[in-house]
Design a protein that fits this description.
By secondary structure, the protein is mostly helical. It contains 12 helices and 2 strands; from the N terminus they run E-H-E-H-H-H-H-H-H-H-H-H-H-H. Strands 1-2 form a two-stranded parallel sheet.
Length: 262
């Protein structure tokens, strides 16, 4: 067995794969810490069918936001604010909605499971970070800075630039805002990314007996079905804090007026 080493550097250039990368495999087997370096040049980018390759896009965005946030005058959690198209949005500050979101009691299972995972472990998958940010800002109409500060306190992998930049992107503010009409549907996301219901059942034990066809939208059960499942909506698990369709319509109207006024 080769001796262990303190650190290893793995270069990715021609091959961006990580699941069967030989150098990465051996580095992980021998080193206590592994640093990965991604090198891009025109030869690689030109070989792609499109420069919108998701791997390239993600890595470039990861490096771009810290560079922007490192400009003079930006200090501490919540400090970096990069001017963008949504700066004039009248964000709200409903404390009850914010508290329900923080506690994981919004009535939308995947959102709630994600927030409870964050509270219990200090971690949340990137897909869920996007979902919960979208839900707070565009369903609950709460100022993105409240969510950004909460994530800053809870995340064990907190990074100022990544956290702040991600929240501003979700809120249609900052210099890298996503399209304002991109609003995550929490039920659709749940069905697509937790199709086996394992994540929801892990972090929402009160829904453990919930029939599979209802677990992504438990409020759709009849009273008889709730009794059979042993879960009373509004007592054992919250009813939806907002109607997603109505909240989406309101958000599109607000953002649309802002777009038209520019």
């Amino acid at each position: 067995m080769p001796p262990r080493i303190d650190a290893a550097l793995v270069w990715f250039r021609r091959d961006l794969r990580s699941y069967d990368h030989a150098a990465l495999y051996h580095a992980l087997a021998r080193a206590r810490r592994v640093y990965c370096a991604f090198v891009f040049d025109t030869e690689i980018l030109d070989a792609l069918e499109t420069r919108a390759d998701r791997r390239v896009e993600f890595i470039c965005a990861r490096d771009e936001i810290p560079a922007l946030a490192a400009r003079p005058g930006r200090r501490g959690p919540g400090a970096a604010r990069l001017q963008g198209p949504g700066d004039a949005i009248p964000f709200g500050n409903d404390e009850g909605r914010l508290r329900a979101w923080c506690e994981g009691s919004t009535g939308y299972p995947l959102v709630d499971a994600a927030m409870r995972q964050l509270n219990q472990t200090g971690y949340m998958h990137n897909r869920l970070r996007m979902l919960t940010a979208s839900f707070l800002v565009k369903d609950l109409q709460v100022d993105w800075r409240r969510g950004e500060r909460y994530f800053a306190r809870q995340l064990n992998d907190y990074d100022l630039a990544a956290n702040n930049g991600g929240w501003q992107r979700a809120a249609f503010t900052g210099c890298d805002a996503q399209p304002y009409f991109r609003i995550f549907n929490p039920v659709t996301q749940s069905r697509r990314f937790d199709a086996q219901r394992r994540f929801i059942r892990l972090y929402l034990p009160e829904l453990a007996r919930m029939p599979e066809r209802f677990i992504h939208a438990p409020w759709t059960m009849s009273e008889a079905e709730q009794a059979q499942a042993g879960v009373r909506i509004g007592r054992d698990y919250p009813a939806p804090i907002v109607d997603h369709a109505q909240a989406r319509k309101l958000t599109l109207e607000v953002y649309g007026r802002l777009r038209d006024s520019r």
